[in-house]
Amino acid sequence: MRKLYSIGEVAKLNNVSIETLRYYDRIGLFTPASVDPTTHYRYYHEKQFFYLDIIKYLKYIDTPLYQIKEIMKKDVAEMLPFFEEQTEKIDKEIAQLRHAQKILDHRKNQIKEQNMLVKQPRGKVYSRFVEGEEQLHLFTDDLTPYGNPDVYMRDLALLLETKESVVDNFYGCVYELKNYQATEEIIYSSIYTSLLKDTPLPEQPTKKTSKKYMPEGQYICICFKWSEACYLAYYKKLYDYIKQHHISTEGMVFEFSLPNRYFSYEEDDFITELRIKMKEEN
């Protein structure tokens, strides 16, 4: 005669709670072998432990209980497509987690760079090494430092989000190195956001956008608290320094701004760095 186990014994032997076993019984997922008609105590036989292990396994891979109930009714051949589907699902989740980890590492590096910029003397020219990075550029022809690049960034955000990625909320602008006499003379040729390595985008995503690489190297820079009123003065200080010291550059200004705080209801507070790549000596 097959030995029967009480619900408490089954719970202890199989590392599940009594409440869980009662719930499984109520929904018809895992019912006892017999129930005492007088006491209503539930009893299970040892052969059922095998099926309880299957339920626990399916729960471990996040299978809903209603789906487990259907699976338990299938034969082995019918279960194969389910497990293949679960494998694909897990592979996708692993890929998403790896991508999320890349985003996190990228953001940590940006915060480190921001902390470095905070320590730089405000309004003084300096040179520093800048790591190279992939960038997604949106071409512009009417945007100035007086404009609002956030609206333009929506085009980049929509493009990245359709690729199951996310836009970097730190962005920059690019324009030519010239002897500007007024801030409104500065016209951004593009705005950009940094991309994670291997972001799945075509080389020319649209007519208005382009994937580019900002090369690593030594850059001549100046940083300051963002201000429309003082922007040109800081730019001219950098421009004059380059001319006075006969520094050869690659001719494009990268404006990069980072927020000092993240409260949307407070006044904007950004630290901005203007950086221009210096030509390498042969």
UniProtKB/TrEMBL annotation:
<keyword id="KW-0805">Transcription regulation</keyword>
<protein>
    <submittedName>
        <fullName>Transcriptional regulator</fullName>
    </submittedName>
</protein>
<dbReference type="InterPro" id="IPR047057">
    <property type="entry name" value="MerR_fam"/>
</dbReference>
<feature type="domain" description="HTH merR-type">
    <location>
        <begin position="4"/>
        <end position="74"/>
    </location>
</feature>
<dbReference type="Pfam" id="PF13411">
    <property type="entry name" value="MerR_1"/>
</dbReference>
<dbReference type="GO" id="GO:0003700">
    <property type="term" value="F:DNA-binding transcription factor activity"/>
</dbReference>
<keyword id="KW-0238">DNA-binding</keyword>
<keyword id="KW-0678">Repressor</keyword>
<dbReference type="GO" id="GO:0003677">
    <property type="term" value="F:DNA binding"/>
</dbReference>
<keyword id="KW-0804">Transcription</keyword>
<dbReference type="InterPro" id="IPR000551">
    <property type="entry name" value="MerR-type_HTH_dom"/>
</dbReference>
<dbReference type="InterPro" id="IPR011256">
    <property type="entry name" value="Reg_factor_effector_dom_sf"/>
</dbReference>
<dbReference type="InterPro" id="IPR009061">
    <property type="entry name" value="DNA-bd_dom_put_sf"/>
</dbReference>
